[in-house]
Design brief:
Layout: E1 5-8, H1 17-32, H2 38-42, H3 49-57, H4 66-84, H5 94-105, E2 109-113, H6 119-126, E3 134-136, H7 149-158, E4 165-169, H8 172-180, E5 184-187, E6 199-200, H9 207-210
Parallel strand pairs: 1-2, 1-4, 2-3, 4-5, 5-6
Helix pairs in contact: 1-4
The structure holds 6-O-phosphono-beta-D-glucopyranose (BG6) and magnesium ion.
Magnesium ion binds at residues 9, 11-13, 18, 45-46, 170-171.
């Protein structure tokens, strides 16, 4: 078996919460009169909440105090969680569910490796917790992607070596994190435009051809 485990990013891979992140940041940026578009948003993929805010504030005409930044991050998170409230089982595609079930049936261990501190809420809302043998997220790390910490912890939770695991990512920062942690990587979505991933997925179920 080429891979004993697969570690999935959450936002933009398992479900499309990346669009909610965008909407919530956009709301804050508009209120502050700061330019923000999809191109800037792509730089936020995989990056922690505070690091994302710093990227958005690069376009700000004025500087903000740490206390103001804390309150902006909380404001964004409130808007984001309000959007998550409406999520349900139908926010994860049949294709994703079927692929995960098939990988499990093949005896492959599955984990989440996400920078998001909202991971538990999203897994609960979408009813996806049962598919994963381990969850490593923003609540158990001190360094966000592109640091490999979140994936190294996920591999540890699975009791597997990084060399035995595939990391699936939609973010350039996540592909870099996987690479520097000694994992092989598969890109989906935005990250397929990057030249570093070992594999590029046209569609999620392509994983079944890679992980056999
Ligand atoms: C990542 C997203 O999964 O989680 C980032 O790609 C986000 O856009 C990060 O900033 C942190 O998320 P949260 O939910 O802890 O604010
Ligand atoms: Mg992502």
């Amino acid at each position: 078996m080429k891979f004993k485990g697969v570690i999935f990013d959450l936002d933009g891979v398992i479900c499309f919460t990346d669009k909610f992140h965008y909407q919530a940041w956009k709301k804050l940026a508009d209120r502050l009169g700061i330019e923000f578009d999809e191109k800037i948003n792509d730089r936020l993929r995989g990056v922690s909440r505070m690091a994302s805010l710093e990227i958005i504030l690069e376009k700000s005409a004025r500087a903000y105090s740490d206390a103001e930044k804390e309150s902006f991050a909380a404001e964004k998170n409130d808007a984001y969680r309000a959007l998550l409230e409406n999520m349900g089982k139908s926010d994860v595609s049949e294709e994703v569910r079927d692929t995960l079930s098939e990988l499990r049936a093949r005896g492959v261990l599955l984990a989440i490796g996400s920078s998001s501190r909202n991971t538990p809420l999203i897994l609960e809302k979408t009813g996806m917790k049962q598919y994963f043998d381990a969850v490593s997220d923003g609540n158990n790390i001190t360094r966000s992607k592109p640091d490999p910490e979140v994936f190294l912890k996920a591999a540890q939770f699975l009791n597997l070596a990084p060399a035995d695991c595939l990391v699936v990512e939609d973010a350039v920062a996540g592909i870099d994190a996987g690479f520097s942690g000694g994992f092989r990587t598969a890109a989906i979505g935005e990250a397929t435009n990057y030249d570093r991933p070992d594999y590029k997925l046209t569609t999620f179920s392509d994983l079944l051809k890679i992980v056999d």
